[in-house]
């Protein structure tokens, strides 16, 4: 785990490298999965010399950007205009992260009274399994949340697999919807109602 400054990420990026040589950066300002890539992790040399200034980038390849925005916001319309503010600016609170016995991270944050856990584990060299769990207060279990998952030139749905650039993505626990965005497309989903909801993503590339 390496916490420092990364290109294109807020000052609250958390990089995680796994033994299977799949890696990620989770942004604790926007509360989302910003980058995933394979092979080499991070070259932190610039942060270990002099005053350690500057931002670094993934050292590996097959780099894919995902949620470069705040991925979950309150709303009921799947094609709603997306706020430009970070989650932190919208009042979300980062609650830290914990590691499983295997060293896999679960990032925790809150949106108002709702508590969220973003758990990610590697699937060998093939990609990641990601479980997003939303716990709402019992009296507000229908509060509307929209998840803006990905953007690409084209997004296709084939036999339950969403093809987003180089990424093949599946979801269990919610239905994805492809939304036009200018000359591109976005994959979004409505978070189902319920006091506790878990959505599982498989990301392979």
Structural class: mainly beta
Query: Helix fraction?
Result: under 10%
**Which stretches are poorly predicted, pLDDT < 50 over at least 5 residues?**
none
SSE order, one letter for each helix or strand:
EEEEEEEEEEEEEEEEE
Q: Give the CA-CA distance, first to last residue.
A: 22 Å
Strand content: over 45%
Largest sheet: 8 strands, antiparallel
Which features does this protein show?
17 strands, single chain, mainly beta, 205 residues, eight-stranded antiparallel β-sheet, globular, five-stranded antiparallel β-sheet
Protein model, in words:
It is a single chain. This protein has strands at residues 2-4, 13-17, 22-27, 32-38, 61-65, 72-74, 93-99, 105-111, 114-122, 127-135, 145-152, 155-158, 161-164, 167-172, 176-181, 184-190, 196-204. The chain has 205 residues and is mainly beta. The strands form 3 sheets. Strands 7-8-9-10-17-14-13-12 form an 8-stranded antiparallel beta sheet, with no helix packed on it. It is globular and about 50 Å long. 31% of the residues are buried.
Q: How is the secondary structure organized here?
A:
Blueprint: E1 2-4, E2 13-17, E3 22-27, E4 32-38, E5 61-65, E6 72-74, E7 93-99, E8 105-111, E9 114-122, E10 127-135, E11 145-152, E12 155-158, E13 161-164, E14 167-172, E15 176-181, E16 184-190, E17 196-204
Antiparallel strand pairs: 1-2, 2-3, 3-4, 4-5, 6-11, 7-8, 8-9, 9-10, 10-17, 11-16, 12-13, 13-14, 14-17, 15-16
């Amino acid at each position: 785990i390496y916490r420092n400054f990364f290109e294109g990420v807020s000052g609250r990026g958390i990089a995680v490298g796994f033994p299977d040589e799949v890696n990620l950066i989770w942004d604790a300002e926007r509360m989302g999965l910003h980058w995933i890539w394979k092979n080499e992790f991070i070259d932190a040399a610039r942060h270990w010399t002099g005053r350690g200034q500057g931002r670094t980038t993934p050292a590996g390849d097959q780099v894919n950007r995902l949620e470069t925005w705040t991925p979950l916001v309150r709303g009921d319309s799947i094609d709603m205009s997306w706020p430009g503010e970070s989650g932190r600016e919208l009042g979300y609170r980062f609650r830290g992260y914990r590691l499983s016995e295997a060293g896999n991270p679960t990032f925790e944050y809150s949106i108002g009274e709702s508590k969220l856990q973003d758990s990610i584990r590697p699937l060998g060299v093939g990609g990641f399994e990601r479980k997003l769990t939303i716990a709402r207060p019992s009296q507000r279990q229908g509060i509307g949340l929209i998840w803006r998952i990905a953007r690409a030139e084209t997004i296709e749905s084939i036999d339950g697999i969403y093809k987003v650039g180089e990424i093949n993505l599946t979801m269990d626990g919610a239905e994805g919807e492809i939304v036009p965005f200018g000359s591109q497309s976005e994959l979004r989903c409505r978070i189902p109602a319920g006091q506790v909801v878990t959505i599982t993503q498989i990301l392979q590339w």
